[in-house]
Design a protein that fits this description.
The complex is a heterodimer. Chain A is α/β, with parallel strands linked by helices. Chain A has helices at about 10-15, 35-45, 85-100, 120-130, 150-160, 180-185, 195-200, 225-240, 245, 275-285, 290-295, 300-310, 320-335, 340-365, 370-385, 385-395; strands at about 20-25, 55, 70, 105-110, 135-140, 165, 175, 205-215, 255, 260. Chain A starts with 7 loop residues before the first helix and ends in a 7-residue tail after the last helix. In chain B, about 85% of the residues lie in helices and about 0% in strands. In chain B, helix 1 (about 1-55) runs antiparallel to helix 4 (about 80-100), helix 4 (about 80-100) runs antiparallel to helix 5 (about 105-150) and helix 6 runs antiparallel to helix 7 (about 180-205). The chains are: A alpha/beta, B mainly alpha. At the A-B interface, helix 5, helix 8, helix 10 and helix 14 of A face helix 5 and helix 9 of B.
Amino acid sequence: MSGDSLPREAGDKLQQIGSADVAIGILPIPGAIGENTLPAIRETLSRLGGSVTCVILQSEGPDAEGTPATVSGMFPQSAPGASLQSFFNAYRTVFTAADQLKARACCVLGSDSKTVTADWIQRLLQPALEMEFDLVTPHYAHGPLEGLLNSSIIGPLERSLYGLRIQNPLGPDFGLSRRLIERMVSAERPHPVAGIVSTAARAGLTICEARVGARLYPAMDWANVSTLFAEITGPVLQDMERNAPFWQRARGSHAIPAMGETAARAEETEGADVGRLLDSFQLATRNLQEIWQMVLPPATMLELRRMSRLPAAEFAMPDGLWVRVVYDLALAHRLRTISRDHLLRAMTPLYLGWVASYALGLQAAGAPPAEQRLEQLAMAYETAKPYLISRWRWPDRFNP
Amino acid sequence: MLEQIEQALNESLTRMLNMAAGLLPGMAALILALFAATFLAWIMRVLLRRSLAGIRFDERAAGWGFPLLVEWAPSRRPTLLVTRVVSWVVIAGGFLIGVSAFDVSVTSQLVHSLFDYVPNVLGALVVLLAGTVISRFLARSVLIGAVNMNLQYARLLSAGVKWLVMVLAVAMALEHLKIGAGIVQLAFGILFGGIVFALALAVGLGSRDAVARSLEREAGRTPAENAEEPFRHL
């Protein structure tokens, strides 16, 4: 089954149902459906007035009619460690089903059910259903060492590109209006996850954040960090290439409306051992220089070599350097300087180097809290945007 | 007697002159073919140089993993190497066409056999080129993969893979050229086996401790240990 077409049986059931006000897609991740999921959805619907018709789209479980109606077998259940492609395809399936149902709003749940509450679903759904917002992105109360790929690259990059301060542009939980659903299933075929924010921004649709609270983040699998890095950043960079004429015009950034109260987050970074991250970075500095040289300018290479000689306690990657690495990575991805898969995997140790530097920075005495530290990083992305635009427009120009 | 000698000399001179006269059209054809081939080679050289510069061939060649090509190239420019190879091939082709204009059976046979050999040379070149590309790609894949797995002997693995593929490609190219088929097969077997054996020895003995440490570190991690890591990326 491709991401666009629905499984035959599920499609038939959707046809029988006809239409619904709301479609809620529960993505096929381990632990996505729990005992509290259905009661939480029922409670949300009752809070929304009780007359809202709803269809739950899920991978397994019994089908049910009425409100909420349940359609199972929408997507195959992903095994732990499976490729993210099937996860992305599931989004497209949800959008296609929501479009078929002519739903006024759609909610996608991609987090562990242990943290998904009625408040969580309501905050994602209500702005799209009742408050004229087209996209509701999640704002999690996460710890300083959680969601690092998002904090270091995805979030600040999209903020500098589109000028919108969104904490989690890749969700995984979202609320979408009918207008945005139609665009996501249009012939343009934006990436089902990486293309959500850019599609909404390009179309001038209204975006808000839902403060949904704490989320359970999946544990790190050391053997697959480079795969994860490639599978997440690859679609984002592809989407960036697709929207180049749009983001080159955007300047600065502004906050977007936020729904719900801010939840407190733990600032615990004690006990985070960065030795392994530093080993990865130093091993790569010794072995991957030939590849990095094809992507990064000489000044950046010089800085990286200097960093690799620093003792662990003094190790630090300046924000400006990291931002230039990300921007040069985006350019090399666009120019296909080397195979894209090789490129993204070869850059993974640099990302681990940034994580080590960030964790050490937070552990230092008198260090600013994580939120302030990440705001500094996001500002560095914005400050260096002219560098990106210049490199993007004139990639052959001499770059020391 | 003198008359007979004079007659014999005259006949010999006439024969020589006739033979020389008979060679003249062939010589003229050879010179013409050489001139035409040189002109064609010059045109192709200019066109190739411009089109390769247009597609930034030098940078692309480096990006495709052809530092070898850069090393071989005069003035370290792959574009120059390609244009020179193409123009010399065209000139050599013109020379062979010119030589075949001589109506001499031995020359003709030589030219025919040379032309018959051209497909083998082209085939061998394609095999070598493909081998180089594949070996560079695989070596890079192995290097990046091994570094991401924190294997200290990443470069050794990568070099091993590269030379295995290159040895295989060279053996196949020589087979195409029909050069010492039996010896090449034998030499290939010895070299291929030798590289594998050397790698096994290097990894198993020379880097035994490093390998053991790496494997313990990588394979010994359980999901529970992973869960204890404070870092959450996704």
